Structure formats: structure tokens, C-alpha cells
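Thread: quick sanity check before group meeting

JM: Hey all, I'm pulling together slides for Thursday and realized we never actually wrote out the predicted structure for the chain we discussed last week. Dropping the sequence here so it's in one place. If anyone has concerns about the input, flag it before I start.
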Amino acid sequence: MRSSKFQIKFKTQRVSQIITGLMALSMMSAVQAKTTHLEVATFDHHNHSHSHSHEHDKHNEMVGSAEHFWQWLQDHPDQKDAVIHYQTYLATQLGSAKAVPPLHNLLTTARSWRECNAEPYQVPPTELWAKILPTIQLYHELRQVGILPPSTKIRSVYRNHALNQCAGGAKASKHTMNAAIDIWVPTYDANSSEMLQLQDMLCQFWHEQGAKWQLGLGVYATGALHLDTQGYRKWGVNYTQPNSVCRYTPPLTVDY
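JM (edit): ok, ran it. Output follows.
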């Protein structure tokens, strides 16, 4: 009985801490707001027209910032409980709250959310929550070994089927399973030597440890990178393996 009361007390305290953390987002400083555009994706690996309006670009520049996410949460109070439960689940499964990437990044959907009449953030269905765990662990591993720099940001994670189709995602996209993340490095230009070196290191990791992680690696000309843990494979333009910048090819027996 005593153990049960302790568990209830612990869970209550944990939820309280998360709520406090979410509320703290509303305290974003003016300095952070001014620098938000440096921390938000300006590209996407889908084929979109370059004739978007300035207003469209402005909205997308804000997506993924803590300030924008907090405002979205304020405008969608019905999502607060789902956000709290999702973060609690991830923190429990990953061992600590620090192991959970910022939710204002982890809940982003697709850059074309507005054209697709969707939301910029979405909590995945509960039956898919576990799918993202190994991919988050992979993301942390790549950061810890120094392949991904500290400035790396998560840009797109779960997409429902309708949004994925509208956004031009692959039919069997692992984003629809909540098993994939798209990332980018805002401090690297797409064709910079730093980006090329990062791609080489990712390819080397994929070659040496990709099978162990069941790593799906997508490298795009825009500088966007795709990571999932749903099968050992690689691709580039048009989601095809021959266009991957990684030169090594796994055995033909691998199921794509």
C-alpha cells in the first residue's frame, strides 16, 4: 500500500514538473524570439514551388520554435493533456526527461502543413508512441559520438497519411509510423564543406553500424537528413538508393 502511494505521488510530481516546463515556454525572452529564425528550417526534402508568399515563409520560420509551439498549445487547449502524457511516456521509457528532445521540435509535422490544411504539430496516436524510441536513441548516439553537431535540430517527425501524401512523402514513409525524424543543421549551408563532411561521417556510421541500428538514412541536396530505425537502407533524390551519397551498397537480400 505504501509503495502504491509512493508511485502515485511520484507520477503526480512528474506531471506537475512537465506542466511547469510547458508553462515556462510562455516566458520566452525577446532575444530568443528575435533569433528564432536562426533555429528553424528553411528547407524541406519534398518538391515544393519556390513561389511561396512571404507570409507563408514567415509562418514556417516560426514553426519549431518554443515560442510558436507554446502559442499553438494555447490555441489548442484540447491538446495539452496529450502533450503531457506523451512527454511523460517518453521520459519514462528513455530513462529521464533530459533524454526527450524538445517537444517543439519532436511534434513538428511537415513544412507544407498550411497548404495541406493540417497542423504544424501533432501528438501521434498512442499505439505508435513506442516506434519513435529507437530513433531518438539513435539521434542521441549520433550526437554523443560527435557526428551530429550541437546545433542539429529535428524538423519533422510524425505525419498522418493524409498530410504525408499531400506533402509529397514516400507512400511507405516511416513518418506515418512515428518512426522517423528529419533533421537539419542551421549553421551549415547545404553545399558547405561542413555539410559534406557530416554526410561522409553519416555514411561511414551507416556502413559500420547501420545494420545494428536498422538505420534508414536519407540524404538530400537541400541539406535535410532523414533518420529512422525501420530497416537497413539508404537513399537520396527521389527516394532511390542509386542516388544516395553513400557509396557502399548493402546485400541485395535486404528488404526495402
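AS: nice. Residues 2-24 form the longest helix (23 residues). Residues 2-243 form one domain.
JM: adding both to the slides.
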